Amino acid sequence: MQAIKIRLLVLIIVLIIGVMMSSFLSRETYVSGMNRSHLNDFPLYQRGWIGEKISLEQKVYDILETDALVLNRYVKQGKSVTLAIVYYPDAKISFHAPEECYGGKGVNIVKEVQEIIVKEFGLMSVNVLTIDRGSSKELVYYFFKAGGFMGHSYNRLRLNLIKNNLLSKEKSGALIRISTLVISDINEASSSLLLYLNDFMPLFKTYM
């Protein structure tokens, strides 16, 4: 009898957590213009990097269900990095994993998780994609942010969103993706992305 009561209690707790996650993280119907934010003014110039905005069609905003998007290309000392940010101010999120956008015949994708050291933040883990199209190769770092959390884990993002909704006024979540072409070797491309992260980390912390 005692074992049955314990199982019932566990089941009730699991159901409560499931209801909470569904309530906090399920998206409402998207309406264009509903969540524009100061992120639309994300800087094009930072610590020697010179950027330009890449235009997006309305269908991109509709697919991602947010108007708070950034797609910029930056250049510094011969290094070129593309930044993409998908931001939801209200935390009701269902992110599309970046690797899902690289379909097509002949495209080979290798995914791994790496730990890197970033100034003004410290040790953090990022998802790393090496995308080989045969004629070109691209290196991608991407990670999630919710409040003080930044890292590779989507599950930890969701847990932090729930915690933030319960304990603070911070309700936003973001996916941050940076990429560069591999011109000579992976190490040089990694160096470019790490330099970019070190220079832009203060802006990520300020704008999201």
Describe the protein's topology.
Blueprint lengths: L1 H24 L19 E2 L2 E5 L4 H7 L4 E8 L2 E10 L19 E11 L3 E11 L4 E10 L2 E3 L2 H14 L5 E9 L4 H22 L1
Condensed summary:
With 208 residues, the protein is α+β, with helices and mostly antiparallel strands. It contains 4 helices and 9 strands; from the N terminus they run αββαββββββαβα.
Describe the structure.
With 208 residues, the chain is an alpha+beta fold. The chain has one domain. The chain has four helices and nine strands; from the N terminus they run H-E-E-H-E-E-E-E-E-E-H-E-H. Strands 1, 2, 3, 4, 5, 6, 7, 8 and 9 form a nine-stranded antiparallel β-sheet that branches. Helix 1 crosses helix 3. The chain is globular. About 10% of the residues have low confidence.
Features of this protein?
single chain; nine-stranded antiparallel beta sheet; 32% helix; 33% strand; alpha+beta; 4 helices; 208 residues
How are helices and strands ordered from N to C? HEEHEEEEEEHEH
Q: Which structural class should the secondary elements be placed in?
A: alpha+beta
Number of strands: 9
Beta percentage is 25-35%
Q: Any low-confidence stretches, pLDDT <50, length ≥5?
A: 8-27
Indicate the mean pLDDT: 82
Q: Report the principal-axis shape.
A: globular
DSSP summary: helix tally: 4
Portion in helices: 25-40%
How far is the first residue's CA from the last residue's CA? 50 Å
| Cα gyration radius (Å) | 19 Å
Largest sheet: 9 strands, antiparallel
Overall tally of structural domains: 1
